[in-house]
Write a structure and sequence with these properties.
The chain has 188 residues and is an alpha+beta fold. 26% of the residues lie in helices and 22% in strands. Bound molecules: iron/sulfur cluster (3 copies).
């Protein structure tokens, strides 16, 4: 295979303007309803893949979308100073991490991650963006040129997925993981 071979992919982004966020939590409600099984059958913001970190005294509202699962707490952390108040890195961290309850499926404890509301047929824009009437969230798509994966890269990715799954099974037990995968696999 030509090592310079390139292809394009669509990168989906949600831009967050924290100055516009009013802390209404409509994004959390919309996300949890979309991910309910069946779809839209219930609202439980504990199932949301977006969380609005609020400091009402300082009028600070920061929507955070769930990122990757962190197997362990990290040691070297940053601190953020906003309007003179210091915040721990954990406050704005998108990880589902052992150090806290955020971004964990309430029944199973399994990690939640933003999937950009992938669905068939696709949505025009993600639910949280659609629900945000304050324009704090805006959706953008852009094209990115990337190298074509070599077979060994694909193999490596599969290896990473296997290790990720093994970690989850070790932590939450096979039945929990299998039940959740089966439940999520059911179309809403
Ligand atoms: S819906 Fe928009 S304004 Fe409301 S909390 Fe979410 S991001 Fe903030
Ligand atoms: S929540 Fe994030 S910053 Fe805090 S320990 Fe976990 S991974 Fe590190
Ligand atoms: S993009 Fe979809 S899955 Fe991600 S946080 Fe927004 S509503 Fe939830």
């Amino acid at each position: 295979m030509d090592s310079n071979e390139r292809k394009t992919r669509i990168v989906k982004e949600i831009k967050v303007d924290t100055k516009k966020c009013a802390g209404c939590k409509a994004c959390e409600i919309a996300c949890s309803a979309f991910h309910a099984i069946p779809k839209y059958s219930s609202v439980n913001t504990a199932r949301s893949r977006i969380m609005v970190v609020m400091d009402e005294v300082k009028d600070v509202f920061v929507p955070i979308r769930a990122g990757d699962y962190a197997q362990a707490e990290c040691n070297g952390r940053n601190k953020y100073v906003l309007d003179g108040k210091e915040y721990e890195e954990c406050t704005f961290c998108p990880a589902s991490c052992p150090s806290r309850d955020a971004f964990k499926e309430p029944d199973s404890g399994l990690p939640l991650k933003c999937d950009m509301c992938e669905s068939d047929p696709p949505l025009e824009k993600p639910m949280c963006v659609d629900a945000c009437t304050f324009d704090a969230l805006t959706y953008e798509e852009r094209e990115e040129v990337i190298p074509v994966s070599k077979p060994e890269d694909v193999q490596e990715k599969r290896g990473e997925m296997k290790i990720g799954l093994e970690m989850l099974i070790k932590k939450y037990g096979f039945k929990n993981v299998a039940d959740t995968v089966a439940r999520l696999g059911k179309k809403g």
